[in-house]
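User: Hi! I'm working on a homework problem where we have to compare a predicted structure to a textbook description. Could you give me the structure for the chain below?
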Amino acid sequence: MKTKKRETKKKIQKKRESMEKQSGQGLISMVKGMAIAYAITCIFFIAYGLILTYTNVSEQSLPMIALACTAISTAIAGYDWAKCRKKNGLLMGLLAGFIYTVILFIVTALASDTFTVGMSKVMTLIVALAGGGIGGILGVNGKK
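Assistant: Happy to help. Predicted structure tokens:
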């Protein structure tokens, strides 16, 4: 009877240690996913800036490009976050999209003299949540 209790305690201890190790790696993977999302955002905007500089493309397309970039970046972050957790894909994707947007709004507020929450910010949040959610679903349901 005592050996069975010891075995159970050892199993519980191993599982606890495994979960602690996994959560540390998970956090690092989540930070990497967000960093990749912002790197993609930077690449998009640098490329778009070059296109604007060297072609006759007008700046009127900037809001659409920014939303497309947000959708793609948050989908990738959501995918990474959900792939890391291996469950709750939609929730992890939505969370990734929300965190991406919060960071984006903080940077925007710090870089600008005025920061107002208007329809463009609401639209950015909706697109980020949708992109992150889709990426999260794909991350959990993708091939292992």
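For your comparison, note the following. The chain is about 85% helix and 0% strand. The mean pLDDT is 85. Good luck with the assignment!
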